[in-house]
């Protein structure tokens, strides 16, 4: 491996853990200038690349879908492009890959550690996993991806600890330390943490993990090779993670009424929060000149926040992305339409 290889950080964590918030905070640090960002999202339309405030030609949205064999080709192409830019003299000091919250990390780690053409220019430096203190225990119980994300980490970052009672936070931290005793555990303050968490981390050493964890990337490579050998091609619905989890995006051409939208989302969070793995929106609200960002995760509805300006080159349509478990799309669409119509003073069909 060349001494001047570019370090790659994999930023992972389950839906709503705060990955994009942390990434925005870190990219403001001068120590992380010349950092290229690759963003992967689950579903038909991505928003997170619009919410990374330093959006430029070195911020790439990978094709929708989980980070498995459907996206690894995109990773290879994106990193090849970055390597070519670096060879041509453009400074690229680090690459951060932000995964979808539903990603099993094993495929991307196997790609970064074993693909010869990547090893000429890049090295896997760090796996940084974020865990949401509000939903962390329930997520680890229900989602095997979340367990893998925590187990392979070099560094664990606990977010939203200020929203949870101290004994519950301590219990979750103890659970994470038992799951991955070799990874330092940090708490993020207001979604942020210092740049040293990335700069002093690498290189990634799978041998430092538990034996069953260290074997996951090799097992992934074997399974993929067998699938190709047998002619099994991985063509799946990019909007459906499994039989219970689906994603979709709703778009609106006209400005939305905040009152109707907020009332509907508060009702949905209160009554069906267990089904709301993630709701995120970039919104054009009536009476607002700036775009408004909206987030909800299960039973937590975060206060809307304004961006300084609309992302360059993107229209002003409102977009709401949903990742749901056991909740039909039609229920969401019908409820939202009714609340919006009521807020606008239109008659609501019964």
Automatic annotation (TrEMBL):
The keyword Disulfide bond does not apply. Pfam families: cobW, CobW_C. The keyword GTP-binding does not apply. One of its GO terms (molecular function) is hydrolase activity. Keywords: Chaperone, Hydrolase, Nucleotide-binding. It catalyses: GTP + H2O = GDP + phosphate + H(+). Residues 245-340 form the CobW C-terminal domain. GO terms for cellular component: cytoplasm. Zinc chaperone that directly transfers zinc cofactor to target proteins, thereby activating them. Zinc is transferred from the CXCC motif in the GTPase domain to the zinc binding site in target proteins in a process requiring GTP hydrolysis. Belongs to the SIMIBI class G3E GTPase family. ZNG1 subfamily. This is GTP-binding protein. It comes from Siccirubricoccus deserti.
């Amino acid at each position: 491996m060349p001494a001047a290889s570019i370090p790659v950080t994999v930023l992972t964590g389950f839906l709503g853990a705060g990955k994009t918030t942390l990434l925005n905070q870190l990219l403001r640090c001068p120590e992380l200038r010349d950092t290229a960002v690759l963003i992967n999202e689950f579903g038909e339309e991505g928003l997170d690349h619009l919410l990374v405030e330093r959006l430029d030609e070195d911020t790439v949205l990978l094709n929708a879908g989980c980070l498995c064999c459907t996206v690894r080709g995109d990773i290879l192409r994106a990193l090849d492009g970055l390597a070519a830019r670096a060879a041509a003299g453009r400074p690229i000091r680090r690459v951060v890959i932000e995964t979808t919250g539903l990603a099993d990390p094993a495929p991307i780690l196997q790609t970064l550690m074993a693909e010869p053409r990547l090893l000429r220019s890049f090295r896997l430096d760090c796996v940084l996993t974020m865990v949401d203190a509000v939903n962390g225990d329930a997520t680890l119980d229900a989602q095997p991806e979340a367990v893998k994300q925590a187990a392979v980490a070099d560094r664990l970052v606990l977010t939203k600890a200020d929203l949870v009672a101290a004994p519950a936070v301590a219990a979750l931290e103890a659970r994470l330390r038992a799951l991955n005793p070799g990874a330092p555990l940090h708490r993020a303050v207001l979604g942020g943490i210092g740049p040293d968490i990335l700069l002093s981390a690498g290189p990634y050493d799978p041998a430092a993990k538990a034996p069953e964890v260290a074997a996951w990337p090799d097992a992934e490579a074997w399974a993929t090779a067998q699938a190709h050998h047998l002619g099994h091609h991985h063509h799946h619905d990019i909007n459906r993670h499994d039989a219970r989890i689906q994603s979709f995006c709703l778009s609106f051409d006209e400005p939305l009424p905040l009152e109707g939208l907020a009332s509907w989302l508060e009702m949905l969070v209160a009554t069906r929060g267990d089904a709301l793995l993630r709701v995120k929106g970039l919104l054009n609200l009536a009476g607002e000149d700036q775009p408004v960002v909206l987030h909800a995760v299960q039973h937590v509805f975060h206060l809307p926040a304004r961006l300084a300006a609309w992302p360059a080159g993107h229209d002003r349509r409102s977009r709401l992305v949903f990742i749901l478990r056991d909740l039909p799309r039609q229920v969401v669409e019908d409820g939202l339409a009714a609340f919006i119509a009521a807020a606008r003073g239109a008659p609501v069909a019964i």
